[in-house]
Specification:
The chain is mostly helical. The chain has 6 helices and 2 strands; from the N terminus they run αβαααααβ.
C-alpha cells in the first residue's frame, strides 16, 4: 500500500479564512467516483492513480499537478477571490466562486498536459507506448472538476 505525506502550504488556513468570510469554499480535484478506471477488475480508481502521482509513492515519483497549480497561481486566485467576496448577493458569490473553480480546474488540466514532470521510466514508456507523464487515455485530465460548497459541506 502506498503511503502519502501531505505538505500543507497554507491551503487549510486559506480555506478556513474563506469559509469564515463567505461561508463557502471551492474544491478542485478528482472525485473518488470520477472515471473509475478498472475498479470492477480490482484495479485502482482514477482518484487513487491521481493521488499516487500527486504525492508520489515508493515506485512513482511525485508529479504534483494539483498543489503545484495552486502554488503557481495563488496571486491570480486570491485576486479572483477578493473580487468574489465583494458580491452582495449569495447567488452572485456562488457564480463568482464557480468561475474561480472553472479557472482553477482548467489550470490543473493544462498542468497535466504541459507539466513539467519527472519523465516516465523506460518500462512505463514501453507499457503505454508514450513518454508523456500523466497522459495515457486522458481519463484523469478529463476527470478534473470543481464544486462550490457551503462551509458545512464536506
Amino acid at each position: 500500500m502506498a503511503k502519502v505525506k501531505d505538505k500543507d502550504r497554507g491551503y487549510q488556513a486559506f480555506k478556513k479564512q474563506l469559509e469564515e468570510i463567505s461561508g463557502h469554499h471551492v474544491v478542485v480535484g478528482i472525485r473518488g467516483e470520477a472515471g473509475a478506471a478498472s475498479v470492477e477488475d480490482g484495479g485502482p480508481t482514477v482518484a487513487q492513480y491521481a493521488t499516487w502521482n500527486e504525492f508520489g509513492t515508493e515506485t512513482i515519483p511525485e508529479r504534483s499537478f494539483l498543489r503545484s497549480t495552486v502554488d503557481e497561481n495563488k496571486t491570480k486566485y486570491f485576486g479572483m477571490l477578493e473580487k468574489a467576496l465583494g458580491k452582495k448577493k449569495e447567488e452572485d458569490l456562488d457564480k463568482a466562486l464557480a468561475i474561480l473553480g472553472e479557472v482553477a480546474a482548467s489550470d490543473v488540466r493544462a498542468k497535466i498536459v504541459n507539466g513539467p514532470f519527472v519523465p516516465n521510466s523506460p518500462a512505463t514508456i514501453a507499457a503505454k507506448g508514450s513518454s508523456k507523464p500523466l497522459i495515457d487515455t486522458g481519463t484523469m485530465r478529463n476527470a478534473v472538476s470543481y464544486e462550490v460548497r457551503k462551509a458545512s459541506a464536506k
